[in-house]
Specification:
Helix content is 24%, strand content 34%. By secondary structure, it is α+β, with helices and mostly antiparallel strands. It has one domain: Hotdog Thioesterase (Thiol Ester Dehydrase, Chain A).
Length: 105
């Protein structure tokens, strides 16, 4: 769910994760921290909020909040990503993407 939400957030910036991949830019998760606050139930409608918390030369981190239809907090999470090429070697975050992400910090 968190991956899909990040993908939609990137799409809202004007390009898709697949488009970045086609430009030899990917963002593998290198660490994730999850803090479960309360259980989600079957048929709950969940909203996932995503925002960047760090944008650096080769790293980007995202905070996530998952709430149910009553507004109850289900999960808080942070994911840590490296910017790499398809060869999985670190590379500089594209400046145009870094600028768009930085506008949300």
């Amino acid at each position: 769910m968190l991956e899909a939400a990040r993908g939609e957030f990137i799409r809202s910036l004007g390009s898709t994760v697949l488009e970045w991949q086609e430009r030899d830019v990917i963002f593998p998760v290198i660490e994730a921290r999850l803090n479960f606050k309360s259980p989600a139930r079957y048929d709950d409608l969940l909203t996932i909020e995503v925002r960047p918390t760090l944008v650096s030369r080769v790293r980007v981190n995202f905070a996530h909040r998952v709430v149910n239809q009553k507004g109850e907090l289900i999960l808080e999470a942070e994911t840590f990503h490296a910017c790499t090429g398809l060869n999985e070697k670190p590379k500089r975050l594209p400046p145009e993407l870094a600028a768009k992400l930085a506008g949300y910090i």
